[in-house]
Design a protein that fits this description.
Layout: E1 7-10, H1 37-50, E2 56-59, H2 71-80, E3 84-89, H3 96-105, E4 109-113, H4 119-126, H5 132-145, E5 151-157, H6 167-174, E6 180-184, H7 208-211, E7 214-216, E8 221-223, E9 234-237, H8 243-248, H9 250-261, E10 285-288, H10 293-296
Parallel strand pairs: 1-2, 1-7, 2-3, 3-4, 4-5, 5-6
Antiparallel strand pairs: 6-10, 7-8, 8-9
Helix pairs in contact: 1-2, 2-3
């Protein structure tokens, strides 16, 4: 009964050195921690012993993965076990030296959130440490210009009044350098923000309970959704449960039943007011250099598997 997806999203770190406008770390309550490397290996071994369904490890969650001092070691462990790997990062710690190390390990792709075209627009979105824009820009120029197997994917999120005027310049510049660029309007993190209007016409489900990635939080717990930043949709815990136990248990079955019917009334599930259930998703994406936009907004941002 596992969701039919080949991607495991593992949150190796809940710390972040940025305070992005579109994020909601101010209401984040989970513990700030880094996943111990032996525990990471145990989790992968446990999952691999149960199923051969998963082929991709995506390092992502509600933290900056490259703040994990043993990140490259974890990538090496995953690769030794036969997994493809990818990471979502703000790029602050992505030096050319680290990138070359990841490339040598065979990392499939690095997705960089880079929300500006100059220091003012970048800082207004990311609120980074001083001097970040220039240093990261120079690092990305070097990385993109090198011979490499690892793809560089770049994302721009746009908030009018902050960085809305840089879109075309950003596309023109990074579209010539990165392997894929895409421009989004930010989502709401369910109820963390109100960037997107909740429409009256809603689909029964966003698709994640059926075809979403396996979401492993930093402490080994499993939650349902990448937008569930505070772990409210907990399904189980790999420290004392198998995947079979978790996805045959009441928590998952009840949540899936609500997605079957589209009725979340009285459940307190965060899905009820989530913009991912909007039928009209025409305002979600502005540009994609590779995919049809209508198709892309129905895919994951790691393995590009279709959700609905």
């Amino acid at each position: 009964m596992l969701p039919q997806n080949n991607d495991i999203r593992i949150e190796v770190c809940t710390a972040c050195n940025y305070d992005c406008t579109i994020c909601c770390r101010e209401i984040f309550t989970r513990k700030i921690e880094v996943m111990p490397t032996p525990f990471f290996g145990q989790l992968l071994q446990q999952i691999k012993s149960e199923t051969d369904q998963y082929q991709l490890i995506t390092f992502a969650g509600f933290g900056e993965p490259l703040m994990d001092p043993e990140f490259a070691c974890k990538v090496g462990i995953a690769r030794e076990m036969g997994f493809e790997t990818t990471v979502l990062t703000n790029g602050y710690h992505l030096t050319p030296e680290l990138f070359r190390q990841l490339d040598a390990l065979g990392m499939q792709s690095v997705r960089v959130s880079f929300y500006g075209m100059d220091e003012a627009s970048y800082n207004s979105m990311h609120h980074p440490p001083r001097g970040s824009f220039e240093r990261i820009s120079q690092n990305l120029e070097v990385i993109c210009g090198e011979e490499r197997s690892t793809q560089i994917l770049m994302t721009l999120n746009v908030v009018d009044g902050l960085n809305g005027t840089v879109v075309q310049g950003w596309i023109d510049h990074w579209g010539k350098r990165a392997d894929l660029v895409e421009v989004w309007r930010p989502h709401n993190w369910v109820d963390g923000h109100d960037f997107r209007k909740l429409t009256s016409k809603k689909r029964h489900s966003c698709g994640r309970p059926y075809t979403g990635p396996l979401q492993v939080q930093v402490d080994g717990t499993i939650n349902m959704c990448c937008f569930d930043f505070d772990g409210k949709l907990l399904l189980g815990d790999l420290k004392n449960q198998s995947l079979q136990d978790i996805f045959s248990d009441k928590a998952y079955r009840d949540l899936r039943q609500c997605h079957d019917t589209g009725n979340f009334s009285g459940t307190e599930y965060i899905c009820e007011g989530c913009d991912q259930r909007n039928v009209d998703r025409g305002d979600v994406m502005i540009y994609n250099s590779k995919y049809n936009i209508e198709e892309r907004v129905e895919m994951t941002s790691s393995g590009y598997s279709r959700l609905t």
